[in-house]
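Key idea: predict the complex, not the pieces.
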Amino acid sequence: MTDVLLEIDNLSVDYETARGDLKALRNISFDVRKAEIVGIVGESGCGKSTLISSILRLIAPNTRFRSGEIRFDGSDLLKATEREMRALRGDEISIVFQDPMQTHNPVLSVGQQMIDIQHRSKAPKGEKREKAAQMLAAVGIPDPEARLDQFPHEFSGGMRQRIAIAMALMSEPNLLIADEPTTALDATLEVQIIERLQELQREMDCAILFISHHLGVIAELCDRVVVMYAGAVVESGDVRKIFHEPKHPYTRRLIECDPGHIKTRARILPTIPGEVPDLANIPDGCIFRDRCNQATERCMAHVPPLESVGEEHMAACWLNHEEVTA
Amino acid sequence: MLIFTLKRFALAALILFVAVTLMFLMIRAVPGDPVQIMLGPRATPELQARLTAELALDQPIFRQLIIFYGNMLQGDLGTDVFSGRAVTQIVFQQLPFTLELIFGSIIWSAGLGIFLGAYAASYPNTLIDRMVAIASVSFVAAPAFVVALLSLLLFAVHLRWFPAIGAGNGFWDRMEHLVLPSFAIGLSWVGYIARLVRASMLEVLGEHHIRTARAFGLAERRVVLVYALRIAILPVVTVIGVGMGFLLSSAVFAEIVFARPGLGKLVIDSITTRNYPIFMGSVLVSTGLFVVSTALADLINAWLDPRARSAK
Ligand SMILES: Nc1ncnc2c1ncn2[C@@H]1O[C@H](COP(=O)(O)OP(=O)(O)OP(=O)(O)O)[C@@H](O)[C@H]1O
Ligand SMILES: [Mg+2]
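Result:
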């Protein structure tokens, strides 16, 4: 397993709140290999953003790491010093955050921000500016040279999203983390961005951790997928396996509810009856049991472990343990 | 853009008109015969009659107001009752002293206030933060004239570090004379600005673009001093612009305590001597100063904030 780039190992993260600890992530494990695209899919609030902010340790002040490791190139990022983290950020690991409208500094020009993030390079300013313009052109922003002098509010949401992607790719990172980078875009633009990401990924040979709650995008782009539900991984593995023979009822429902393909997909989340449990007050047993139509006694009492259900395929559901339940 | 500018100008003119008219009426409401006070008890009736006619005091008050505005629009604010010099000349001679004092106060207090506020916000809820909070509350509670008197007694009279009175001659001497009065005026602003900056800085530091800056490994200093502070100081500019009225009234106290020349001293002297032309001239200029400073604050904000720039 030398080709593993990022390993999330049994990670649990809480948010301290007035109502008590909100268990945002519980025992998350998965990994990302070099030059591979891994998708994370799950409903709103299932902890996707919490997970990726934890990787770079750019976390809200009330975040508490309760257990687990996040290993990047073999070393645990949760034990790294702030200085070591800063050296990784925007160099080996880049990130595209969720909300493109607020992701750039409103009072500095886009060019200034793109020059600033090249602070590790010793190149003269003119060269950095040229590189910034090249990157803007690469993500399909017309007339990049002139637009460098403009401010974020002079760009549309889709353009800002592309600028964010350009900025993240500028350092040619080994790992690009993209948090719903296409949610703010209309369908055609989304396709364009996905294709661009694929091209750039092939060119730069970087791994991508791609977050979305759109199954179509994930199916299109990713090699492997991690399905999250209420702060836990319920299923993970090869993208085709998971789409063709899902081994967790939640994944199945997600696929059933998804209206289909990348072009016709609805903007809203798939609807599954029932509510996500309160993360500050997690009930016993399987996290999905209240919305599952196949739940048994056992699901009420015990948490199903995430276990291999085939080659390159893991799931956390008692239904895969029929030999025991039957 | 044009409509915005026109609106601003109309508002500025309105403020100026209302304030000046009010002052015009108020000085005339002060009890006592103005001509007698101006000329003293031993003036001849002829002299009194001449001055009354000159100031149009025999006319109904409404006509006096019209005459005043008529002359004002022609750039004529009348002549000083005592020296006979043009009011405009006298007022503009005093104006630099007051401007010097106000800008001196703003610069040191805003500088220190911004520094303390940004520092406290970078280390919230630490000992440093609490100390800044306590210091700023006590600064805010200290009125300018009390600070002026105390600092005069302590630093000028007792310790003799700084000159006590006047405005000085030559650059360094003038600067030295500026220290105590601008300290007195600025002290309460330090606390106020520190608290303002701390609050807005904490808000900005929690915004998503700051996380982005950190995600690219920018040095924390650059994140705080450039990416956050540029935004966090925007409210300070507005507050100082609007606070110009307050600064002017503190300047009056400081000018009296430190016997400095300036608009404040001019106003007080002109009230006690009922020197109507001088009074109106200084009121007009200080109101103008207020109006200009709020406009200036908008301009500076537009310069610092591209969003405001293109909104116009
Ligand atoms: N700073 C915080 N303090 C307390 N709770 C938080 C905090 N940030 C997030 N949460 C909660 O943690 C849970 C996970 O949030 P997260 O943002 O990771 O979800 P997400 O999967 O990214 O959702 P979305 O698809 O809407 O972006 C949610 O219930 C959210 O309300
Ligand atoms: Mg999110």
